Amino acid sequence: MKKILLRYKFPLTLILFLVISILSIYLTGLDGHIWSFLEMGNDGRFHVMRMQGLYESIKHGNFFPIVNMSFLDGFGYIANVFYSNLWLYPVAFLRLLGLTTVQAFICFYILINFVTFVISFVSYYIASQKFGKSLVFSFVYTLSVYRIFDMVRRFDIGEVLTLTFLPIVVLGVYEIFYGNNNKWWYLTIGMTAVIYSHALSPILIAIFILLVILFRLKILIKEPKRILTLIYSGLTSLLLSLGYFLPMYEQLKHTQFKLTNAPLIYVSQGSMRVHELVKFSLKNDLFEQNIGILMLLMALAIPIIIWKATPAIRDFGIIGEILLLMTTDIFPWKLFIHTPLNMIQFPWRFNMLVTILFAIVLASDPWKLLNSFWKKGVIISLTILMIFLAEFSLVTNHPAQDDSYAAFNNLDVYSIGAGQEYLPKDASLKQLRQTKHVPEVKSGAVKIKNFQQKDSAIKFDFNATESSKIDLPIIGYYGYSSNSSTGQVSAIKMDQTNNGLAQVKVCGKGILRVNYQKTPIQKISKAISLISFLIMIIWLFRQNKVSSKIE
Q1: 90 close to 74: Cβ distance less than 8 angstroms
Q2: Which phi and psi angles does 428 have, rounded to 5°?
């Protein structure tokens, strides 16, 4: 039996990952109900509507939508520029296969769990070549309280996806600063995947990398090539991400959003009190942000055990403690409310880095306390048990949030998140709810007939006896074009006095045709990123061939 287990340990591990991926969300989504905090200001509804919008666009033949037209009852919301759709295509295709919203969402969650197990295991195994330690890390990290909190309480898909790829990022940081810096491309892959997951997470990771640089400064002076490979990695990540960053920058340049004009919260307001962090962590509470009891114990143990560890583990442990301190009000966040750091909103977002760094330290076992397989099995079993109990407690203590599949499938198209970040700065969500979805004549004399809208395309006949202004039932984001119209039709502008709706001037007779046209910057930047990706694939293939010949 032992020989069979050893011989097939990797495929058996994959089966185990799949089983736990399903069981770990059973209480919150596989029994005909789904535990879902669905208040309209919550991230959950927003991300589900992102998925719905991609699915609807693909149905209309638009595989790469810029404006999500499922939001705001057809007025459209340009969330796709700020949150990439790249990792949402599996959900959209499941919907196209006939699955309901909740069925596709749960399948996606199982997939995310499984992929996180695999990526965390493989990343640790590449660095350590230790099967048992890699298994411990994959379970402790994937089933960590903060990650599951993000999944089943916040429903923050962007941050959950970041947590999926974060092990690759940390592997890349390890190779550049502690291991074989010729493997800098791990950081490139990880960072690019994170960038296409969540806009804020790269800021947190940059702070982590800066701390590593400070800890390794003495070594970097002796080995400057490591800094050079960090630059290689950064530049390559930038090229691969231009298709994301440049369209965002372009839209911010042409439109004043609530995002930049009226911050919902200052970073100093989002920090935790130390006693709250300890209280919620001791309870293993999935209803409030915390690191869980296991990671809290690691926070207490690290100052004692870290001095027997390797330099990488020692630095990661200490940096984890620093970042944990930064989640609390002990850190002077008031000094940063008027800096770019204010964008992170909640300092407890650093818990994702704290979690992975503490999990690495635990799995590395610097004091050799887990030196037998059965001890590793105990840690894994306790991790599984604790997260099951935490989910059971979440569901039983908050029964009002236990929704039927039917309730989850009933989407509210105005679920754009509490911050309403991507509305024009003077737009009112309340007024948009009350606005009729028809063209509105703002000045002049004009008759409108045969109004049609399909996805982001609007068409109608007009007959204006004088120059007239018409507000269209779409938000006038940069990129909408009226060039295919006939008759005298102006370019699209945004009516700041009317919720940022698209406005045109018309005169005489004609047919107005308006649709969102991808801008030259959007097209060129995506082409550069795609070409860079293909070049990198070819380069990695050739590098692998050279390495194989050397071996």
Answers
A1: no
A2: -120, 120
E-only strand ranges, 285-432: 402-404
pLDDT in tens, 464-505: 989 999 999 999 999 999 999 999 999 999 999 999 999 999
pTM of structure: 0.94
User: What CA–CA distance (Å, rounded) separates 269 from 333?
Assistant: 8
Give dist(CA 211, CA 29) in Å, integer: 39
Q: For residue 310, how many C-alpha atoms fall within 13 Å in the half-sphere facing its CB? A: 15
Residue 6: both structure tokens together? 């050893």
Q: Are residues 161 and 208 in the same domain?
A: yes
**How long is the chain?**
551
Taking the CA atoms of the chain, what radius of gyration do you get in angstroms? 26
527 within a domain of the structure (yes/no): no
Q: Residues 469, 443: contact at Cβ < 8 Å?
A: yes
The sign of the torsion formed by the CA atoms of 379, 385, 387, 393 equals: negative
CA 244 to chain centre: 13
CA atoms within 13 A on the CB side of 435: 24
User: Are residues 314 and 440 located together in one domain of the fold?
Assistant: no
Residues spanned by the domain of 506: 435-518
SS3 396: helix
Domain count, the chain: 2
21: enclosing H helix or E strand: helix 9-23
The pair phi, psi for residue 365, each rounded to 5°, is: 55, 65
Residue for token digits 């795609």?
Answer: 530
The dihedral over CA atoms of 309, 314, 317, 319, expressed in degrees to the nearest 10, equals 180
Token reading at 223: 């080995």
In this prediction, residue 371 carries a pLDDT of 86
Q: What does the block give as tokens for 21?
A: 């991926």
Distance CA 179, CA 189 (A): 17
* Residue 502, beta-bridge partner list: 494
Q: Looking at the structure, do residues 500 and 382 belong to the same domain, yes or no?
A: no
User: If you count DSSP H runs as helices and E runs as strands, how many of each does the chain have, helices first?
Assistant: 22, 9
Same domain for 390 and 487 = no
pLDDT, tens only, 74-91: 999 999 999 999 999 999
Residue 406 has pLDDT above 80, yes or no: yes
